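From the pipeline queue, job 12 of 40. The input is one protein chain; the requested action is below.

Action: predict structure.
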Amino acid sequence: MAEDNPDLKPKGGSLWPREEDVGRWTDVYFKRTKKTVETFGDTRVTYAVFMRRPVVCAPRLAVDWLHGIAAVRGVTFDIELTHDEGRWVGAGEPIMYIAGPLASLVDLETLFLQKLGPACVAAYNAYTMCVDLPKSGFLAMDARHCAGTEMAEMMAYAASVGSARAKRKAGAVGFIGNATDATAHFFGNDKGLGTMPHALIGYAGDTVRAAEMFRDANPDAPMTVLVDFFGQEVTDALAVCRRYADLAAAGEMSVRLDTGGGRFVEGLDPQTSYAVLERNAPEAIRGYRSEVELRYLIGTGVSAAGIWHMREQLDKAGFDKVKIVASSGFGAAKCKTMAVANAPIDVIGTGSYLPEVWTETYATADIVAYDDEPRVKVGREFLLRN
């Protein structure tokens, strides 16, 4: 079982909230329950923890934190994971059972739930995206969308769990890294990945000049040039490739499309977008497509047609080894549509595996046994052990 997995053992890393902070961050009714139990006598209890939607099991942060707090308190929590990390968990299925003294566990419920639910949903999203586009690498760029560093750590961990499942189940490339150094270890890296934001292009005043400045300052960094700043994606991509023809020929050059939703990629409009897909992925536009799917296929922003158009122009100019990085709203739905169009994306930069509907991230816990005697509130009998 997962409790034997060394990856799920406490690693002695950050322990937040710390023991001395638990009382400030937990619910008051739990603190008053703790005081009551300490007054009238402790008892051993077992919690069942579950979610109301299917998820991918991502319990490590919650489990590590519980073991860390237990060590500080001088007690032991027996944690039984019913699903290994990265396994599918159905709605209502207990993810884990946590057993220990009620006085030591009761004030921790809110805090361990916070560390479990969002991670499991994000891991689910990351998994589905990687499976839909198994030949594309993914770069986690979600930190800018997170509500603080604790969430950023949780989401990076979740992406790594979903990615590992996709590699195992579908042979997907999965997530190759993330954008910050602090959480790079979840992806097996020492440092975060990334090249240039729009700010650098604006600073340089010219895309080729920005590439030159970047190269001079970061000679050992991968060369991925952002090409949409001036609305001349194709023109600027080809100009950069000609400037660094040696890198382009060696397959060491990438261009990144991050075109905003207010306009088409250079050279496209609705008619030419249809024509691009007709040449490259005709099946994508011959079946019924929703309005959202059509926008992803032939609409403004980074569409499948826009990516195919860039691929065509690069190949036509002899830069067939130049890779395409795509970003801007690549969530599960957009990835699925890109798969329909077989869009030639080498790497996707995304923060869109973060849960969209926050209420779906709510994990729940109920006590199902007191001193090993089964007892649970009416309506939650499905949590009882067989």
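Job complete. Residues 1-13 have pLDDT under 50 and may be disordered.
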